[in-house]
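Protocol check, entry for the methods section draft. Step 1: assemble the input record (protein sequence plus ligand SMILES). Step 2: submit for complex structure prediction. Step 3: store the structure tokens unaltered in the notebook. Ligand used here: zinc ion. Step 1 record:
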Amino acid sequence: MSVTLGEVIAALEARYDPALAEDWDAVGLVCGDPDEPVERVLFAVDPVATVVDEVVESGAQLLVTHHPLFLTAVHGVPADDPKGRLVHRLVRSGAGLFVAHTNADRAPGSGVNDALAAALGLTGTRPLQPAATDPRAGLGRVGRLPEPVTLAEFAERVAAALPGTVGGVRAAGNPGRRIETVAVCGGSGGSLLPAAAAAGADVLLTSDLRHHPVSEAQEVRGPAVCDVAHFASEWPWLPVAADVLARDLSGRVDVAVSRRRTDPWTTHAGASR
Ligand SMILES: [Zn+2]
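Step 3, stored output:
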């Protein structure tokens, strides 16, 4: 029994309501025919060439990515443009592309931030910045570890829970500091430092952090900060989203998660404590 792309999109949008997306975002179907059948769906963080290679090799009819291929208006998708070429390759191999970005960040239950919190073993999680329309949805999550650990142990736990990257895991704050209440935000969540402090978090785990806000948070004895690769912070969503899609469609599609590391950083030198 197969499903159409339209049915897959309806199932994804029931979990990741496009209305939750930020105004500037570009979510939903990028290419693909909603009337065509779908047997296999591949989930990945980034719509980049190596992931499109995997779509073509695996014979998937749909690629679901967290990050948009296009965030600004385009006038065409010629194949001599890097992004246009990806669209051509997907269409030629009979595959669509669907994006669930900030709507997946904010979604309750099976979104990016709940997946990140679950990967770290947090319990009693709630949104750090609840959405006005639904207090179960919103930006970031805050919850508790099963038992307190030091900041250094927390960083080790994070490294073990997330996919390995060249940059690894860094933390700002006293390495012996007691960590029990944890705030997380997949992707670029440095703007949530005040919300993490207000929620009584001992640490904020996010990515793409800047020097001054992190330094200032330590000066005022705010939350410690744990900095991971942007890709690594969002990857835990992939198996969660794949699993809920398969269940929501009663197993009528095969789902797979890309194992390709699309974190753009490739080398690291000079680490010193
Ligand atoms: Zn992201």
